[in-house]
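Can't paste images in this forum, so I'm doing it all in text. The chain is below; anyone willing to post the predicted structure tokens underneath?
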Amino acid sequence: MSKMRTNTDFKNTDIVSKLKLEMEDNKLTQEMKRHAVIVAIHANHSDLEISRFLKIARSFVNKVRRELEASDGNVESVAKRKKHEARSDKVRTSQFVQKVQGIIDEDPSKSIRAISKDLKVSECTIRRIIHEDIRYKSYAMRRGQFMSAQTREQRFIQAQ
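Text version of the structure:
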């Protein structure tokens, strides 16, 4: 029969108590949380105990545990978060942005929808390129109220 672990067992762990002192600063980085979870996992604590004690999500503890198991206990590969890698099939490259800017400079009246059809790219992508990358503002001329010459003269007189 396995021995049930209590909260007092968890608090008596030397390394964990030192981590708890550091954690009282309230400025926990993701990396510090990750290290604390790894230490607690090596001390054979359950996910629920770790999440309650460190006040972090149980899913985070479970994720770190799965990463540790996948790497056969290699702590160094799990201790840091993975770096972001750009997609290999991304469309918003600098060459593509320049191509879109060339099309707009050539014919500013061309609609975003027409540009997206010509380039066979989603309208959302073209809209993002125009607003975020090129920083152009698209607008449409609004038709104003029709004013005859007589109405215009009356308005001019009343304005004086």
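Residues 94-133 form a domain with the Arc Repressor Mutant, subunit A fold (CATH 1.10.10). DSSP finds ten helices and no strands in the chain.
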